[in-house]
Amino acid sequence: MVRVIPMCGLCRRVRDERVPARDATRWVDFPSYLTRHVVSLSQIQFSSDYCSECRLSYDILKSYGI
Ligand SMILES: [Zn+2]
Fold it and tell me: pTM score, two decimals?
Protein backbone atom coordinates (compact mmCIF):
# COMPACT_ATOMS: atom_id res chain seq x y z
CA MET A 1 0.00 0.00 0.00
CA VAL A 2 1.36 3.40 -0.99
CA ARG A 3 1.18 6.22 1.49
CA VAL A 4 0.90 9.73 0.08
CA ILE A 5 2.54 12.31 2.30
CA PRO A 6 2.10 16.04 1.69
CA MET A 7 5.49 17.77 1.65
CA CYS A 8 6.00 21.51 1.98
CA GLY A 9 7.55 22.85 -1.21
CA LEU A 10 9.45 25.53 0.69
CA CYS A 11 10.84 24.04 3.90
CA ARG A 12 10.55 20.37 2.91
CA ARG A 13 8.76 19.33 6.04
CA VAL A 14 6.09 16.67 5.77
CA ARG A 15 2.63 16.54 7.31
CA ASP A 16 1.87 13.99 9.96
CA GLU A 17 -1.79 13.13 9.50
CA ARG A 18 -2.02 11.62 12.95
CA VAL A 19 -1.35 14.98 14.59
CA PRO A 20 -4.39 17.28 14.98
CA ALA A 21 -4.48 20.24 12.58
CA ARG A 22 -4.05 22.84 15.33
CA ASP A 23 -0.96 21.19 16.71
CA ALA A 24 2.29 22.95 15.79
CA THR A 25 4.13 19.65 15.53
CA ARG A 26 1.94 18.52 12.66
CA TRP A 27 4.61 19.51 10.15
CA VAL A 28 7.80 17.67 10.89
CA ASP A 29 11.05 17.09 9.11
CA PHE A 30 11.15 13.82 7.29
CA PRO A 31 13.58 11.98 9.60
CA SER A 32 11.29 12.77 12.56
CA TYR A 33 8.34 11.49 10.59
CA LEU A 34 10.15 8.23 10.05
CA THR A 35 10.76 7.84 13.76
CA ARG A 36 7.02 8.24 14.39
CA HIS A 37 5.79 6.01 11.61
CA VAL A 38 7.04 2.66 10.59
CA VAL A 39 6.98 2.87 6.80
CA SER A 40 9.32 1.66 4.16
CA LEU A 41 10.61 4.25 1.71
CA SER A 42 9.30 2.30 -1.26
CA GLN A 43 5.76 2.78 0.06
CA ILE A 44 5.97 6.57 0.20
CA GLN A 45 4.89 9.11 -2.36
CA PHE A 46 5.07 12.83 -1.80
CA SER A 47 2.48 15.32 -2.86
CA SER A 48 3.36 18.99 -2.95
CA ASP A 49 1.78 21.34 -0.47
CA TYR A 50 2.74 24.21 1.81
CA CYS A 51 2.91 23.94 5.56
CA SER A 52 0.93 26.35 7.72
CA GLU A 53 3.99 28.50 8.49
CA CYS A 54 5.16 28.81 4.90
CA ARG A 55 1.64 29.47 3.74
CA LEU A 56 1.40 32.28 6.27
CA SER A 57 4.72 33.83 5.19
CA TYR A 58 3.64 33.49 1.61
CA ASP A 59 0.39 35.31 2.31
CA ILE A 60 2.27 38.08 4.12
CA LEU A 61 4.69 38.47 1.20
CA LYS A 62 1.82 38.52 -1.21
CA SER A 63 0.06 41.27 0.76
CA TYR A 64 3.18 43.39 0.30
CA GLY A 65 3.07 42.70 -3.41
CA ILE A 66 6.41 40.92 -3.54
ZN1 LIG B 1 7.03 24.96 5.01
Answer: 0.81
